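Q: I have 461 residues here and want to know how they pack in 3D. Can you give me a structure?
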Amino acid sequence: MKNKITFSVCIFTYNRAKYISDSITSVTKQLYSNYELIIVDDGSTDNTEEVVKGFNSDKIKYIKKEHSGAPATRNQAIKEASGNFIVWLADDDILLPSALQYYAMYLNKVPNADVLYCSLKTFDETNDEAKTIGGIDWYNKNDEALAFLMKGSPITDGGCAVKRTIYNEIGGYNEDFKRAQDYEFWSRLIQKQKYRLLHVPKYLYLYRLHGNNITGMFDENTDYSYEIKIIENLLNNNKLEVLFPQFGWNKNRKEAEFVSYFFLTSKFYYLKNIELGEEYLNKCLQIRNLNNDEINQIYKLILQTDKIDAERIYSKLIKKEEDPILEKYDLAIKKIDDGDIITAHAKLEEILEETKNSTGTLPFDTSNLHIIVGNLSLLQQKLDNAKEHFENALEINPFSSLACQGLGEIFEKIEEYDAAKTMFEWAIKNDKQNEAAKQKLTPLNKALGLDENDFSLSEES
């Protein structure tokens, strides 16, 4: 007879009286009965304790401690647990009734699995399902899971079941990580390259979407230093070809190295670390120059963080030739670096005037140049001039996300909110990675009395 597997379902909570009853109820309705429910309260100041104690079950163990943050609270839950596997349940989510039953069934089929995780469905305050989140089966694919860490966490935290002894072997959650502690934990576990990760291809977990979720709430104030620490640790401990096996190292090692560095350049700029982004950009340039598409990708990423740095680095990437126009352009960019945006603006206007009838190949993207001048005009509150340049950029490139974003900022400044909303939506439609436009759209929707996620453009627009 197969061994009876025991589960410790662990909820770490803080001020979730509104939702935690649903989470607890979902555990008490499990079809598989060999479990305990550990609830560690991180010093809630609402009536969470009252809600929890309203459940009369000898399977529930409730511990309340002083407030110290999510990682320490999770580590306390691990200490309290006695099951073979720890199953993580957020204090606002729901474990479907068959979850533990399926986990036990799969563990009996694959007894050497160390971590199990399932597919998820999201739902909102109205209980409408928003989307499904599947999963990749990493069983016996630890090398692929390691490479995936460069993109993000390869395992969904909600509903995952981790063999309890693993925490004794590699440690618990890093208490220095206010965010991304699950990503950091998976990075340590997967780098050991000895644990077996098994995906259970069933939707067993409901992830609740609401305004106070920690996970997935990213904005311009998000501290990405935690993700950066994880990536730097991965780089320090592993060779590039291990982290980026997909780049054809046996065919063209130099190009594989370039593409790896370019990925890291883009990643660090996306995480708003200009210094590290430029460090890896310089590694790229030691191998070869960037093509126009690569230059534009980097420019867009940096522009989300710092317009001045974007113009400086853009000038660095343009091919240097003996060209009076390019010399004038370099001088203008130097003026931007020096903080003299008025002189820089004038020089760039001269370049546009001198080249507007040119039929030859210019050493820069004219559409991007109009966007640079438009942004400089915005900084000087010259809205009419900025509008003219963004419109010129759109005439050259009708799909320019940054030109649409610039026009949206102008309309926002003059309080033409409907027009601003339209332009920010076009910016997002033209580039789904334009986070600045997304961040602008949400408060605009609220100001217009719309749902914060309202998006009016149709797919056919």
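Q: Anything worth noting?
A: The two ends are 62 Å apart (CA to CA). The first helix runs from residue 20 to 28.
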